[in-house]
Specification:
The protein is α/β, with parallel strands linked by helices and about 210 residues long. The protein is built from 8 helices and 5 strands, in the order βαβααβααβααβα. The chain has a 5-stranded parallel sheet, with helices on both faces.
Amino acid sequence: MSGRGRLIAVEGIDGCGKSTQARRLADVLGARRTSEPGSTPLGAELRRLVLGADLPPITARAEALLMAADRAQHVEDELRPWLEAGQWVVTERFSGSTLAYQGYGRGLDLPGLERLVTWAAGGLEPDLTVLLDVPVELAASRRAGQRPDRLEAQGADFHARVRAGYLALAGAAPGRWAVVEGAGEVEAVAEAVLAVVAARLGPLPVRAP
């Protein structure tokens, strides 16, 4: 395909179904699929430092800076080259995650974080951010039995703040965000995600058969 590709970010609290829906959407679109943190070699090391449950605690600002470093490398190594080559890209998490987790969740200064994420991404923004919204209790039940990482292990109050932050971000930029109810069956959620992507960004490069 000619021209710049489109960047779609799939966001939401841990346990909302991001990985499943990002994979299904990328398959339908014939798009590249990637994720944060950890998609690049540097990012894999940064992910270990940020999320490793057995590592010493880090401060909220250090956490935000490590996430920003991961994004900067992700943009330059993968996202920007793919988009410039005309490819569509689906990323599981992008700048919205930093604002929701480190801003609303950790309580860091939002205007400062907004400047940080814009700088780290070199000004790159998703063409559309799809927020999979699920209740905190449901997300926790989906994660039950898994060994939690550092962020997943935070209490329900933290995840409630993150969810509220995501909804606030989506409400403040309805032209760039779309909220999809993520509590339903996987197939129904996938259909809703594809429908909103088609409505906002169509025509799509590949449609479901």
